[in-house]
Amino acid sequence: MAVGLLPGLAVLVMGRFKIYEALVLVEMEYLTLLIVVLLVALSGLFSGLTLGLLGLDKTELERKIKIGNKKALKVYSVRKKGNLLLCTLLLGNVAVNSALAIFLGNIASGLMGGIVATGLIVIFGEIIPQATVSRYALDVGARTAWLVKVFIFVLYPICWPLSKLLDKVLGDEMPTVWSRKELAEIIKHHEDSTESELDSDEERIILGALSFSDKKIMDIITPRSVVFALEIDTPLNARMLNKIKRSGFTRIPIYEKDIDNVIGILYSKHLIGMGKQDTVRRLSKERKLFRITLDKRLDTLLDQFIKKKIHIAVAFNEYNEFVGIVTLEDIVEEILKMEIVDEDDKVVDLQKMAKEKGAKS
User: Fold this and answer.
1) Which helix H or strand E contains 166, and what residues bound it?
2) Are 223 and 354 in contact (CB under 8 A)?
3) What is the DSSP secondary-structure string of 289-358?
4) In terms of DSSP bridges, do strands 230-231 and 222-223 run parallel, antiparallel, or are they unpaired?
5) What is the tens place of the pLDDT at every residue in 159-215?
6) Is the dihedral of CA 278, 281, 287, 293 positive or negative?
7) pTM exceeding 0.85
C-alpha cells in the first residue's frame, strides 16, 4: 500500500514545485519591471541634467552668486568643471541606457523589444526630462546638485582622465560677453516682460548710457545760429545785463570782432558785484576756452569735462570756423533721452529751433 502512495506523492511534489517556479518567475518579472522603471528614471535624470546644467552659463552663475543667489551657488559647485560634469552625465546616461536595453530584452525580444526600448528611452528618457529641466534648469540643478556630486564621485576614476584630456585639447570655456547692441536688446526684452522689475524710465536711461558713446558732437551740438554770444568789448550796462538775464544762460561765449573768433566764456555769476565800468573783456580774461572738433565722441568729451572741471566746450570745424557749443547738460540729456528744462530756460530744444530758423531763412 505504501508503494501505491509514492506516485501520488511524487505528483504532488512536482505540482508544488511548478507553482513555486511560477511564483518565482512572476516575482522576477515584477523585479525586472521595477528595475526598468528605475533605469528609465535614471536615464531621464542624466539626460535632463546634461541639457539643463550644461546649458547654464558659468559667467551668468558667477554673476548670480555675487548678488547672493543660493541656488546658483549650489549649481556652480558642480558646473564649474564643465568637462568633468559632461563626461559624468554622458557616461552615466550611456550605461543606464545599455542596461535598460538588456532588461527590456528579457521582457520582450525581437522587433517588439526594440520598439518598446526606443519608445521608453526617447519619450521618458529624453524628450520629457529635457523639455522639463531646460525650463527650470537652475531650480532642478540646485535640488539635484548633491546627487550629481555622488555620480561624479562614483565615476571619477573614469571621467577625470577624460575631462583632463578635454581641458587640455579644448581649453577653458569661453566667457559670455555681450556687445552694447546685445545689451540694449536684453534691456528692451526685460522691460517688455511682465516678470521684470525694470520700468520704462530705467530702460530709457540704460539705453541712453549704452548708446551715447556712439554719438558724436554733431548729434547734440547747439548750432551757432541760436547761440547767445557777446562781443568782448560789449559794455555791461543795465540794458545788457537785462538782456543776459532774459537769455537764461549762465555760460556765454565771447568773441572778438567776428563770431568765428570765439576767445572765451563769460560766467554770469561773475556779474554779481561788478563795477559800473566793467566790460566783458575784464570779467572773462582769465577764462580758458575749451575747444573741440566735430568728430569727437560724447564719451570722450564727458571724460574731458570731468577731468578739466569744465561744463561747456566750443566746437570748430576743419576750417577753424565756429560751429556751436556743447555743454555737460547736453550729454546728460543724451543719456537720459529727455530734455532737461529749468525755470530760466526759454527754449526747450535749441537744435529744433535752429532747424526752424534755417528753414525760414
Assistant:
1) helix 137-170
2) yes
3) P-EEETT-BHHHHHHHHHHHT--EEEEE-TT--EEEEEEHHHHHHHHHTS----TT-S-S-HHHHHHHHH
4) unpaired
5) 999 999 988 888 877 777 888 888 888 888 877 777 777 788 888 888 888 888 888
6) positive
7) no
Q: What is the DSSP string of 174-210?
A: PPP---HHHHHHHHHHHHHSTT----HHHHHHHHHHH
Span 280-336, pLDDT tens digits: 777 765 557 889 998 899 999 999 999 988 889 999 988 888 999 999 988 988 888
Residue with cell 548633491: 146
Q: How many CB atoms lie within 10 A of CB 184?
A: 17
Q: Which residues, other chains included, contact 97 with Cβ-Cβ below 8 Å and sequence gap of 6+?
A: 39, 43, 121, 125
By three-state DSSP, how is residue 267 classified?
strand
- The candidate with the shortest Cα–Cα distance to 231, out of 264, 256, 250, 252, is 256
One-character DSSP codes across 204-258: HHHHHHHHGGG-BHHHH-EEGGG---EETT-B--HHHHHHHHHH--SEEEEEESE
State how far the Cα of 77 lies from the Cα of 149, in Å rounded to an integer: 9
CA nearest 339: which of 350, 323, 355?
350
CATH code for residues 215-360: 3.10.580.10
